[in-house]
Amino acid sequence: MKKIFITMILLVMYTYVSLSAVMGAEIVDIDCNEYDIVAKAYFTYNNTVVRLNDNKIRYFWWTGREFLLYDAKTNELKQSTDAENWTLIDIDFDLKNRISLLYTPVIRFCGDKYIVYDAYFEPSADPVIRGNEISKQSIYIMDSNFNLIGSYTFEDPVTDFEYINGVYYLETSRYFMDENDKLKRTSQVYTSSDTVNWDIDNVLQGVPKYNGIKNYIMPNNELVNYSSNLYRFEWNDIHISNNNLESTKVEFETPPACYYKVVDDLYVTYQNGAQEKSFQASLDGVYFIEILYPDYDGALRDCHWWKDKLIFRTSDKIFEYDISEIRNILNQKCPIDTPYIKLNNSILGFETPPVIEDGSTLVPIRFLFEQMGAQVDWEQATRTATISQNNTTVSFTIDDPTAFVNGAPATMTVPARLINGKTMVPLRFLSENLGYTVDWNEGSRTAIIE
Fold first, then answer.
1. Is the pLDDT of residue 63 over 60?
2. What is the pLDDT of residues 150-187, one digit of tens each?
3. 262 and 376 inside one domain
4. Taking the model in full, what pTM does it have?
5. Residue 95, CB half-sphere, CA atoms under 13 Å: how many?
């Protein structure tokens, strides 16, 4: 069977103390369309009334091929390319009822067929509260004309699903609280090339994600720092893999997000709950921008991909962002050829990505050198940074090419810069003066520090 051996990434950017300011990923304010949710029961989207059931958008989908809408009153399933003009679908009555009875049905077009599964057991408080109520769970497979061609029943609830390069990946999980009131889960990944025969994969620790551009991503399936009150948790371990090569752990300045999605060719990470101010987007899953929500009341509920739009739902609003606008900003601020920095066999996930100036790679100083175990001090009045390690001290001032190594002047080819509130320094000059070597891998555009 075709396999993709990967172990990869994701993240959410909150705040981190830099040398000169409290700053997370670069914050971007993008205009979005807003739709009111009326009486917490329905909203109008492209002249189509979308109803909420049990406070969820249960019967409106973007499959990756078209929009689908199920009308519970008429028991009709319809399809559309623009979510405005609808055509009735001829679908088996029994199959239609099965789909409508799922708690949170998901319909995705993958390859040449539709996959239908219940997303009820996404990581949240619900699996802990209700996890013992449902065990075995079926997925349904339909051909491109909505004819049922098969089904498969798993022992535990489905918690994740992806289709990548001809391979179907599916994860089942069982959640529970241990004796210390910590969220725990047992998970199993299955793979299939035809959705009929499913094999247990004992290598993968979760379902991989891939946006079709760069880097397969996947968190370790262990959840940490779970809060049932805040509906939050963090992923314990994150890796990336380029072009199916050996996976590499990523060390981030901030912990990974609770929720993440592949939205067209973007990686999107976010948190549900009250008082959430922003979400994050990335082209590679390593370097992100942070995008602000408009002001809203209540809580952030969920995130959806609807054709060329990124959708967030709050208690009483729908926010609609243009994916192409987010992509354009990412291409400016986190271009796909941004170099990676590898230290201690891990890629460093900086909040502010490295930049190349006149052939020199500039990196954020504090996160890098604290990962090296060096001491970093900052003098705001003169905008001077000092790095100390192993009886070596290097100091330099923003925009001044002259540095001082143990008090002796030394010229840098490019001076330190202040970018997005972060002090950025020439990687090779600083690293080599502290006794490290720096090698450059052009194929992966990675600077390797040893």
1. yes
2. 999 998 888 889 999 999 999 888 777 778 876 677 88
3. no
4. 0.87
5. 21
Evaluate whether residue 7 is within a structural domain. no
Q: Is residue 178 in some structural domain?
A: yes
Is the predicted pLDDT of residue 9 greater than 50, yes or no? no
Domain annotation covers residue 89: yes
Residue 13 has pLDDT above 50, yes or no: no
The token duo for 293 is: 């929500």
Q: Are both 135 and 206 inside the same structural domain? A: yes
Give the amino acid at 299. Answer: A
Tokens (6 digits) for 147: 């004819």
Report the CATH number that the domain containing residue 151 is assigned in CATH: 2.120.10
User: Domain boundary at 333, 350, 385, which?
Assistant: 333
Find the domain containing 393 and state its range.
340-449
Task: Return phi, psi of residue 2, to 5°.
Answer: -65, 130
Q: How many residues does the chain have?
A: 450
CATH number at residue 360: 3.30.457.10
CA-to-CA separations, 94 to 97, 98, 100, 113, in angstroms, rounded? 5, 6, 10, 19
Residues 283 and 352 in one domain: no
Looking at the structure of the chain, the number of domains it has is 2
Cβ–Cβ < 8 Å for 168, 191: yes
pLDDT digits (tens, 9 = 90+) for 100-143: 888 889 999 999 999 999 886 554 444 444 444 555 788 999 99
Name every residue whose Cβ is closer than 8 Å to that of residue 19 and which is 6 or more positions away in sequence: 365, 366, 376, 378, 385, 422, 423
Q: What is the DSSP string of 339-405?
A: PEEEETTEEEE-SS--EEETTEEEEEHHHHHHHTT-EEEEETTTTEEEEEETTEEEEEETT--EEEE
Whether 223 and 359 share a structural domain: no
Distance CA 122, CA 160 (A): 7
End-of-domain residue from the set 304, 333, 362: 333
**46 and 145 share one domain:** yes
Strand partners, 158: 172
Average pLDDT, the chain: 85
Do 366 and 242 lie in one domain? The reply is no
Structure tokens at 394: 């290097």
**Backbone φ and ψ of 154, nearest 5°:** -105, 155
Contact 360, 428 (CB under 8 A): yes
Confidence bin at 8 (pLDDT 50/70/90): very low
227 pLDDT more than 50: yes
Tell me: do 307 and 428 sit in the same domain: no
Q: Strand 446-449 relative to strand 340-343: parallel, antiparallel, unpaired?
A: parallel
**DSSP code string of 130-154:** HTTT---EEEEEEETTS-EEEEEEE
